[in-house]
């Protein structure tokens, strides 16, 4: 299973909420965990492996794996800017302003409702993955002109021309 890369249209879609946690969701989550570790990412969202369902996994390196279903931010506090990369937008780093601390609610893999408080890198990783569920990538945090310049400078248009020519 491969990680989809920008500009794959699946990455731009809003993912569907999960009404009942099914076996397929659990196997998707376990695949996501495997791919996250293989790719040395700190998180992964289901659309990145081609599944438009609201599932994310996060592990910022403390081996505490969060497997979250339908994650929703219910409180945010403060603002912080940091450079972010994304497995679906390789070779590009974007300075993204996000909340410093958050409270989210979600279902865990057993379908139980949970609340998580997170700050710093963990909050950032969760918010980055929730963005994916809404079809938003790090480059979408840039204004259109800057986005075009970053993509052009990173050779994205060249790569695309090669692929489609
Ligand atoms: Zn990402």
What does this protein look like?
- The chain is an alpha+beta fold and 165 residues long.
- It has four helices and seven strands; from the N terminus they run H-E-E-E-E-E-E-E-H-H-H.
- It has helices at 23-38, 120-133, 144-153, 156-164, and strands spanning 43-45, 55-58, 66-77, 80-84, 94-98, 101-107, 113-119.
- The strands form two sheets. Strands 1-2-3-6-7 form a five-stranded antiparallel β-sheet. Strands 4-5 form a two-stranded antiparallel sheet.
- The two termini are 25 Å apart.
- Residues 86-88, 128, 132 line the site of zinc ion.
- Zinc ion (ZN) binds next to helix 2.
What descriptive keywords fit this protein?
165 residues; alpha+beta; 26% strand; binds zinc ion
Brief synopsis:
The chain is built from four helices and seven strands. By secondary structure, it is of the alpha+beta class. The chain binds zinc ion (ZN).
SSE order and pairing:
Blueprint: H1 23-38, E1 43-45, E2 55-58, E3 66-77, E4 80-84, E5 94-98, E6 101-107, E7 113-119, H2 120-133, H3 144-153, H4 156-164
Antiparallel strand pairs: 1-2, 2-3, 3-6, 4-5, 6-7
The structure holds zinc ion (ZN).
Residues 86-88, 128, 132 line the site of zinc ion (ZN).
Structural class designation:
alpha+beta
Q: What's the rounded overall pLDDT mean?
A: 94
Q: Ligands in the structure? A: zinc ion
What is the share of helical residues? 25-40%
Order of helices and strands: HEEEEEEEHHH
Q: What is the end-to-end distance? A: 25 Å
Compute the number of strand runs.
7
Strand content: 25-35%
Radius of gyration: 16 Å
Taken from the alpha-carbon principal axes, the silhouette is globular
Low-confidence stretches: none
The strand line-up of the biggest sheet is: 1-2-3-6-7
The number of helical segments is: 4
